[in-house]
Structure formats: structure tokens, C-alpha cells
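Table 4 source record.
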Amino acid sequence: MVINKKTNVVCEILNYNDAETVFHLVEKIRNYSVFSSILIVDNASPDGSFLKMKKRYQNDNKIIVQQTSKNGGYGYGNNYGISYAYKKMHADYVVLSNPDVMFSNEMVQKLLDEMISKNAAIVAGTQRINGKPIRTPAWKIPTAMQWTLIETKLWKYAAKKYYYDPSLFNQKDLQVECVHGAMFLLDPQKFLNVGGYDEKIFLFGEETLLGYKLKSKGYKSFLLNKVYYDHEGSVSIKKSFNSTIKQDEITHQSKMVYIRDYLGLSPIKLKIIETIFNYIIVKKKIKKRFNK
């Protein structure tokens, strides 16, 4: 399929204290024919990233650099960028991209073809790490119990209904509920119609809640199983949160936003889930202390 030249596809890259990784990605994709523009959103980095990027691309008409007023997290930064791309740049579609990924022009074209033919809200490719496709490129919207038990010794029970049957990933494309947020193509109008990311979630778990909101509105998401992008593995996140316990704490906070605000559980059930999450963190802290 030949892409309509009038189709305005913007690549939005969210940065936080990682300008060099952004530069590496931009140099790779700046001449991709599929993109009308590249929008870099600096999430109020305190390391001078914004001025560095602004200076570097000040004479490049294809690359726009913007900055948020605060670091409100992954969802906040991307909501700003997607809204800017749609309202100010009149984007028909937006590729949301972490700085630490690599993808081809042809890959984006395949996502776009699928997006147009299926009238989808999101189309994602399959993520590879170290050259190997990950085992769970997509997953189902979890119940409160599934999202809680997945972190305990009962994870196998929860995983049976939380993850798709691996054999489904042999298909060319697959309608799914949730995809990884490192890189995908979205319809900005549909994204904004559901309110975008919930900004109460600072980091981790955004994709699941977005999947819930899109499905609730009747919008569809698709995964292309034989179309790949490469992910270095949360380079930016590890620079900011190198403690796995801290990452777990943030994950639990994010999960509680979804469970508390969207699933309508009773106060008793919420307290039980919160207690389980607290127990997991305390157990890990004790284990870490004794392993020193």
C-alpha cells in the first residue's frame, strides 16, 4: 500500500535527562519519509536537556522541541506531546516513542497501513530485546485479583487469564487489549477522546489503564506479530530509578490508581490489596538487607 502523501504522521519522543539517547534516535529516523515531523517533548529535565536539544535543532524545520512545565511522569509528558501534535501540528497519527528504541521506516508504514485498514486506536509492533522477541508483546485487561496475584507465588494462576495464549502470536496480526508503551502508532483523536493517560499514574502500568479506557469506549488495538522494533530496555527509567524496590513501589502505586479509581472495589478489598503490596515491598527490603 502506498501511503497518502497528505497523511500527517508525527513521531513524538519523550525525554527526561537523556538527550544523548534522543539524539541517537533522531539521527536514525529524521529522514524517514513516513514522518512529516518529529516532536521532542522534554519532561522538565533538570540536567539542561531542553536547551541542549533546542540549540541543536533550532534550524531544522522538521524537528520541533517543546518542554512541559513540570515532570508529571510518563503519562503527563506524553499527554502534552500528543495533544500538541494533534492541536498544533494537525497530526493525523502519532508514533509515540521512547528514546531508547530503534525501528525502520518500513515498520512504521506497516503500522500505518494496519491503522487505516482497521480504523484502530493503536497499532503496535512486536518488541525485541537483545534481538529476541519478548514473550508477552500484548496482554489482557486484568481484574484486580489478577493484577495483585501476578506479583505473588500464585502468579501462574493469574497469568493464565492475564496473558494471551502464546500460539496467537504466530498470526500476522491480532486484536489485543494492551500493548507495551515503548513504541506504537496511535490515533490522537481517539486517544484524547478517552482522556489520554491517567496522570495520577507517574510511571509503570499506564498501558494497561489506557487499554481499559480505549476498550470501554469501543476502540480497537492491534498487534503486528511479524513487525519488530528494538528496545534497549528502559535506559531512561534505569537512569532515574536504579533501585528495583523503588520501581516496585511506583508500580504498586500505579496499580492502586487503576484498582481504586476504575474497578469500584469495596474499601475492605482495597485494603487487602494494599496490604499485599506492602508485604511484598517489606519482604524484598528484608531480603536485600540480609544479602548485603
